[in-house]
Specification:
378 residues, alpha+beta, Immunoglobulin-like, 3 domains, four-stranded mixed β-sheet, three-stranded antiparallel β-sheet, 7 helices, 16 strands, elongated
């Protein structure tokens, strides 16, 4: 690209001058978005269609490394020559922010917000900051990267605000986000089941029984928030890996305050629905509802296991001596999650739930060990 020491640009609405001043009035005969670049002009009088070394730029074309575009600023349209510093006239125009989206994600897991489609007419480097609740409080400092992560532990649906700064001007944009929690999947499942009570005693009785087990899994004493379960670790100090699934079917083993019984009640509810789906006596429309509910319940359990594993991986280890055993618990949790996913691909949903429970359990043990200053007694 050629270097112009003195460049004067004749523009449809405004003349940008490389030495820093603006000419408010002029005659202009072109109507198709053309400007004259006068590389050798040294005075206002020399800016004219017959100027020495004249370069003609048309919209969208590139000549000598320069491109003519149009832009809008404060309600007025301007022509802008790009290809050298500050659009050729030492004039800075504000950036155009783009917050991306709309976004949807899961409670307890990070959602990545991406402002990479934000632009600046002058190609200035941009900085970004985010207000994830749109409450007027910025949740990040100014960032040089266009992406940022945020986690909601409970359901959330609302507006996210982005601010973009080019060093002189700052502009904002908004987008929407919807976050769904494991708890909500369970509650929605109950609503779906209740809506299909039709007055037939046998069917209604079966639906009531399934709902009873799902409600047991929603006991408030088992939940820290909508995406985390209580871990009552003393019950797990001596548990036998090989006997886990057999023990898993006995909720008294875990104690009433442990979140792992959430998975137990889920498995019972899912097993009841699978049996009904296989039964020839179950009306087809009820069977379809059961299939939808099973999918939601397993999704809830899958999220609980994924959130627990994410937390385990991101919990700082207080005592470096425990790193090996923490890593071992995380590795087991990952393997159990993979096993559960294999069961899901085979459509053996009730078989996947104990493996999700086991993954959750080992992640919780990893968190407990990571937070320990001394080795727990076993």
């Amino acid at each position: 690209m050629p270097k112009f020491s003195k460049i004067l640009i004749l523009v449809f609405l405004v003349i940008f001058v490389s030495i820093g001043f603006v000419i408010p009035r002029f005659s202009y005969a072109q109507t198709e978005g053309t400007v004259y670049v006068c590389p050798d002009a040294e005075s206002l009088e020399e800016i004219n269609p017959r100027c020495q070394g004249k370069i003609i730029l048309r919209l969208g074309e590139m000549v000598n490394g320069m491109t003519l575009i149009t832009t809008s600023y404060e309600g007025k349209d301007y022509y802008l020559v790009l290809g050298f510093k500050n659009g050729g006239g030492a004039v800075n125009l504000p950036p155009t922010p783009n917050a991306g989206g709309p976004y949807q994600g899961d409670a307890g897991l990070p959602i990545t917000f991406d402002a990479s489609n934000s632009t600046d007419p002058n190609a200035d480097p941009l900085q970004y900051r985010w207000d994830f609740e749109n409450d007027g409080i910025w949740d990040t400092e100014w960032l040089s990267t266009s992406t940022a992560n945020h986690i909601w532990n409970n359901d959330y649906e609302g507006v996210v605000k982005l601010e973009v700064n080019d060093g002189e001007f700052a502009r904002t944009a908004t987008t929407s986000v919807k976050v769904i929690s494991p708890k909500t999947f369970k509650e929605e499942s109950i609503s779906e089941l209740e809506s299909f009570r039709d007055g037939e005693k046998k069917i209604d009785k079966k639906i009531d029984k399934i709902i009873w087990f799902i409600n047991k899994s929603l006991n408030e004493n088992l939940w820290l928030d909508a995406s985390h379960l209580v871990f009552f670790e003393k019950w797990f100090e001596d548990f036998n890996e090989k006997e886990f699934e057999e023990m898993f079917d006995k909720p008294e083993w875990t104690g009433p305050k442990s979140g792992i019984v959430v998975f137990h009640y889920e498995k019972v509810a899912v097993r009841l629905m699978i049996d009904e789906i296989k039964s020839k006596k179950t009306p087809e429309k009820i069977g379809q509802v059961f299939e939808e509910v099973i999918t939601k319940l397993v999704k809830a359990d899958q999220l609980l296991a994924q959130v627990s594993l994410f937390d385990a991986k991101n919990t700082p280890i207080q005592n470096p001596k425990f790193k090996k055993i923490v890593d071992n618990q995380i590795e087991i949790a990952e393997k159990e999650l993979q096993k559960a996913e294999q069961e899901l691909t085979k459509n053996r949903l009730d078989k996947a739930i104990p493996k999700l429970a086991k993954s959750w359990l080992h992640s919780q043990l990893a968190i407990k060990l990571a937070n320990s200053e001394v080795k727990p007694q076993t």
